[in-house]
Amino acid sequence: MSKKIKFSDTFLFICIFLIAFILYTLTLYPTVALSDSGELATVAKVLGIPHPTGYPLYALLGRLFVMIFGFLPVSLATNLMSAIFGALASAILYLFLRVIGARKYTALLGAALFMVSRIMWEQAVLTEVYTLAIFLYLSALTTLFSWTSSKNPRWLVLSAFFWGLSFAHHMSVILFVPAIIYLLIVYRRQLNFRITLVSALFFVLGLSVYLYLPIRASLNPLMNWGAPSTFERFFRHLTGWQYRVWMFSRTTEQLKAALADMVKIIVKNWNLPSLVLLILLWVLAAIRRTKLLWVMLLIIVFDAIYALNYTIPDISPYYLPVVLALSVGVLGIDTIRLRFIRMVLIVLVIVAVVFSAQKNFRICDHSDDWSAWEFGANVLSPVPANSLIMVSNWDMYATARYLQVCHDIRNDVAILDFNLLRRSWYVEEISKAPRFAFALQKIMYFRDRVLPFERGEKFDPMIIQDAFDAMIDELLMRWPYPVYAHIAELSYMQKYKGIPEGLTFRVDEGGHYRFLPPWFFEYKNTVRRRLRWDERQKVVYGVYPAMFMNRAVYLVANGRLAEAEDYLQTALLFSPLDPRLLKPLLALQIDRNNLVGAKRTWEKLMMVLTPGEIQAMRTDIISRFGRIPWEY
C-alpha cells in the first residue's frame, strides 16, 4: 500500500523541517566540539581531506556552507550544516512514511519521534558527518520505495543516484546493501536492461564525487589526511585500512559487553517505555507489512552486527539506522481498526515524544558549551613563542589545530599528532615544512621503513620501532625552541615527562620554573557544565585535574607551596570529591598551617572515604603532628 504525496504533505514536510531546525538551532554548539569536529571544520575551511574514508561529499558541502555563511565562525557554519541536514532527515522520514502508506498523523508521529531521539539530536548540534549520512539514506530509501509502489523508473534512477552519493559520503551505507538487494529481488519484474543500465550510470555519477580525493590531494591542501593522490593511498584511504585493527576483533565476553552497551544506548535514545511501545507497534505493523518488516530487520541486524564489532569509544551514531528503523514502527497504529484503541496509541506516542523531547533537550543543549574551545586554547596559550607541541590526544590536536587554522590563534606554535607520526603520509607532509628541515633525514628514514608495512610487504617491526624512536628524539630534542609533549604511551611518558605546564610537559633541556598560575587558563565554561559532561568529555577533561595535580607536585618539590595549593584547589573544581586530590591538599594545608582550609578538606574526605581509611588517616596525621591540628 502506498500514498500519493499531496500539497498538504509538502506543507507538513516544511513544517517538520522548520520545527526540527529551530529545535536543533536552539541547542547548537556555538563553536567547535570534541572528537572530529575540529578536524572536519578545518577541512571545510581549507577544502582539505579528512580522516578515512575521506567523506568527499561532506568536504565539498562543508566548504560551500563556510562560503555561504562566511559572516559566521567556521565551526558555527558547519554546526549549522549538521542542523539543516538533521532537520531535512526528520522531514524526509515523514515523506518516507507517507510513501509506504502511513496516515498523515502517523507519519508526523514517526518523524517527531526520530527528531527528538537522543542520537539524532546529539549529531544535529555539532560538526559531524552523520546527519548528512542519514539524510542521504532516507532520501535513497524514499525514492526506492516510490519506485516499488509507482513503478515509475525515474524514482529508481534517482534512488541509485542517492545511493551513489551515500557511498561518496560514508561507507556505513554498505549496511543497507542487503535490504536493497532484497527489494530488487522482490520487485525484479519491474526491472529491465535499460532501467538497470541507466540506474547504474546514475549510481556511478553519485559515486564519482570520490574523484575529489585524488584530485584535491594532488594539490597539497593544508589538511591532507592520507595524501590519497596515488591509487595505492587512495585505496587505503577509501577502505579505512588503518581502522581494521578495531573491526571484528572482539572476544565473546567483549561482544556481550558491547551488546549490553547497545541496549543501553537504544533505551537512552528515548526511554524504556517509549522503546517498548515502539516494539509493540512494530509487532502490529509486521502483520500487514511483511516486506517492509524484512527491509527494516535487515537494516537493524546488519547495522547492529557492524557496530557491535567496531571498537571505538563514540559508537552511538552508528546506531542511527536502528533508530530510523524503530521509528518506522509507528505504522502499527494504522493497523488498528478500533478507533478508541488507535486514539490511545496515538496519545501514548505523543506522550513519548513530549517526554523524550523534554529529557533530551537538557542533555543535548550545548548552546552555551565553549568547553572544547577552552580545551584547545589551554593547549596552545601557555607555551612560549615558536614552541613545538607533540600530543597523542586527538581532542587536543584537533581542537588546537582548528583554532590555529580557522581563528589564527598561536600560529607560531608547531603542533604534531604523535599517533599520526607513525604514518608515512603524515611524516611526508611535515617534511615539506621548512621548520622541520633539521629532522628531514630521520623523518625520511622512518618513512622508508614503514612503507613496506603499509603496503603489506615483508617488514621488520624492530627496525620500524627504532626508526620511529629516533625520529621522535630528533624532533623533540633538536627543536630550537621550547618543546612540550603529552604522550599517553607509558614508555614515552616516562621518557618525556619533564616539567608540567598547563596540559602538557615541557621536555627540552632549557626548561625551568615559570610563573604560570592556574587563573591563567580558561576553564570557567568547562567547570560550569561539569555535571552535564558526556562520557567522552569526562575522559578528555580528566586531563585538567591530572595535569594540575602534576603541577602541584612539581611546585611542592620546588618549595612553592602557596601556588601548589592554588593548583590543587583548581583541580578540585573539575573533580570536587576526588580523594587523590583531597589527600595531598590536606597535607599541604597542614604544612602551611592553613587549619581552616584543612578542616574543610577533612570534612570532604569524610564524605568519600571508608571508616577504615578515615581512621588510618587520623593515625597518620597524629603520628606526624601529635594531634589533629584543626581540632584544637
Q: What would you call the structural class?
A: mainly alpha
Q: In percent, how helical is the residue content?
A: 55-70%
Sheet of most strands: 5 strands, mixed
Distance between the termini: 84 Å
Question: What Rg, in angstroms, do the CA atoms define?
Answer: 28 Å
Low-confidence stretches: none
Please identify the oligomeric state: single chain
Count of individual beta strands: 5
Could you list some keywords that capture this structure?
632 residues; mainly alpha; 30 helices; five-stranded mixed beta sheet
Task: Report on the architecture of this protein.
This protein is mostly helical. Helix content is 64%, strand content 3%. The protein is built from 30 helices and five strands. It has a five-stranded mixed β-sheet. Strand 1 (388-391), helix 19 (394-407) and strand 2 form a beta-alpha-beta unit. Helix 1 runs parallel beside helix 5 (104-115), helix 8 (153-167) runs parallel beside helix 10 and helix 28 runs antiparallel to helix 29 (595-608). The mean pLDDT is 92.
Ordered list of secondary-structure elements with their pairings:
Elements: H1 7-26, H2 37-46, H3 56-68, H4 74-99, H5 104-115, H6 118-123, H7 130-150, H8 153-167, H9 177-186, H10 193-207, H11 212-217, H12 231-239, H13 252-269, H14 272-286, H15 290-308, H16 320-327, H17 339-364, H18 371-380, E1 388-391, H19 394-407, E2 414-417, H20 424-431, H21 440-454, H22 461-478, E3 483-486, H23 490-495, E4 499-501, E5 504-506, H24 524-528, H25 535-540, H26 543-557, H27 561-574, H28 579-591, H29 595-608, H30 611-625
Parallel strand pairs: 1-2, 1-3
Antiparallel strand pairs: 3-5, 4-5
